[in-house]
Design a protein that fits this description.
Number of helices: 17
InterPro entries: dGMP_Pdiesterase_EAL/HD-GYP, EAL_dom, EAL_sf, HDOD, RNase_Y/CdgJ
Pfam families: EAL, HDOD
Number of strands: 8
Protein name: EAL domain-containing protein
Strand order of the largest sheet: 1-2-3-4-5-6-7-8
Helix content: 40-55%
Radius of gyration: 23 Å
Number of domains: 2
CATH superfamily of the largest domain: Hypothetical protein af1432
Shape: elongated
Order of helices and strands: EEHEHEHEEHEHEHHHHHHHHHHHH
């Protein structure tokens, strides 16, 4: 059986909005791209339909894809829709005549190019008129050095992307240097600009999350929590009445809860939990928390470990809580009444739930070797991991769309 391996990493603009995703698509755990003729590659590369306008993988954003030199020379990128793809030329590519001719041909066909992990060299000068984006790994080329090159390129219509941006300070420094796009973990780690208190509404949300994670929900208690908060009350009625669940308008909270049931109630609570945190955070981070929640839940369903799926859901969702509230995770977990197994997983990455989070993070980073090792240990069959990842993205997108329609 042949498996597909794919992950994505957001690329943000200066306003910390998602500009596109780098798709880390490989032929398998060895992390290699298939070097085959374009005719044979067509069904292999497009069969999963990652570049469809409705694909949950891209969310209508641009796809940045690494192509080895021979793939470009073979015009493999021409198999993909030019409106959705940015062709990344890898740093180890040789700027020879064959590559130049292929780049020029694809450029004239309407395709856009990025130079990945670029290191300035006169050998690449003739390629620059056909390049849309240049990516600097600021771990290899310091921002100060990259700025010298950026300043020298004012005559070209080239945009610059900073890779491996890991702190807020690096993000600000890159902006000042002239970078317009950013890739790295700065958006998903605490910026620590100031300590933020947990708002009362959020504490209510946590109590709701804990209640809906139980096997038997106390709807009277849930109703009492919701009615304490005007915003929650309003959102609940909007959420239920905007859905296709009912034919008559719902006017009472008890009636709304009865119609929702446990699964939809959990979806609603997860939605408002994310919406009640820091509004200045990139939307991709909110989506990531929802996606991880569903991903973890699906993985434990397919795994051999006897892990409660509700605990897995909360573990995945809360794994980015520190980034949403700009406070260290252990400090936050002391303030909220979570199950000890969840706290162990989030604080120390231990226990079955901790293993699940490690698997999710390895998959997001396209660390296929680690993915294979962990999946073998926790009993999750390889074919299900990619399937669970895709389903989790579809679910998180559905929740976000519900939020827009009910907001």
């Amino acid at each position: 059986m042949t498996f597909s391996y794919v992950a994505r990493q957001p690329i943000l603009n200066s306003k910390r909005q998602t500009f596109g995703y780098e798709l880390l698509y490989r032929d398998g755990p060895k992390n290699t791209f298939p070097e085959i003729e374009p005719e044979k590659a067509t069904s292999r590369l497009l069969s999963d339909n990652f570049f469809d306008s409705n694909s949950s993988l891209l969310e209508s954003k641009l796809a940045f894809v690494n192509f080895p030199q021979q793939s470009i020379i073979n015009l493999v990128p021409g198999l993909f829709p030019k409106e959705q793809i940015v062709i990344e030329i890898l740093e180890e590519s040789e700027p020879n005549d064959q590559l130049f001719d292929a780049v020029k041909y694809l450029y004239n066909q309407g395709y856009r190019f990025a130079l990945d992990d670029f290191q300035p060299s006169l050998r690449w000068k003739r390629f620059l008129p056909f390049v849309w984006i240049i990516k600097f790994d600021i771990r290899l080329i310091p921002v100060e050095k990259a700025q010298i090159f950026i300043d020298s390129m004012r005559g070209y219509d080239i945009h610059f992307l900073a890779e491996k941006v890991e702190t807020y300070e690096e993000f600000e420094q890159a902006k000042q240097a002239g970078f317009e796009l950013y890739q790295g973990y700065f958006f998903s780690r605490p910026e620590m600009l100031q300590k933020k208190a947990i708002e009362p509404t959020f504490l209510t949300i946590v109590q709701l999350l804990k209640e809906v994670s139980k096997r038997s929900i106390n709807y009277t208690y849930v109703e009492s929590l919701i009615t304490q908060d005007l915003s929650l009350s309003y959102k609940l009625l909007k959420f239920v009445n905007s859905s296709a669940l009912i034919s008559n308008e719902i006017k009472s909270f008890r009636q709304a809860l009865a119609y929702l049931g446990e699964d939809r109630l959990r979806r609603f609570i997860s939605l408002v939990a994310i919406a009640s945190t820091n509004n200045n955070k990139p939307s991709s981070l909110y989506g990531l928390s929802l996606q991880r929640a569903r991903f973890a839940e699906l993985l434990v369903v397919h795994g051999q470990n006897q892990v409660d799926h509700s605990k897995a859901f909360l573990t995945g969702m809360f794994s980015v809580l520190d980034s949403l509230l700009d406070r260290p995770l252990p400090e936050l977990l002391n303030d909220i009444p979570l199950d000890p197994d969840i706290k162990l997983a989030l604080n120390k990455r231990e226990g079955p739930l901790g293993t699940m989070i490690n698997l999710i993070e390895a998959y997001e980073q396209a660390d296929w070797t680690t993915v294979q090792q962990i999946s073998d240990c926790c009993g999750v069959a390889q074919p299900f991991i990619g399937e669970c990842y895709e389903q989790s993205m579809q679910w998180s997108n559905q929740v976000k769309r519900s939020n827009k329609s009910s907001g």
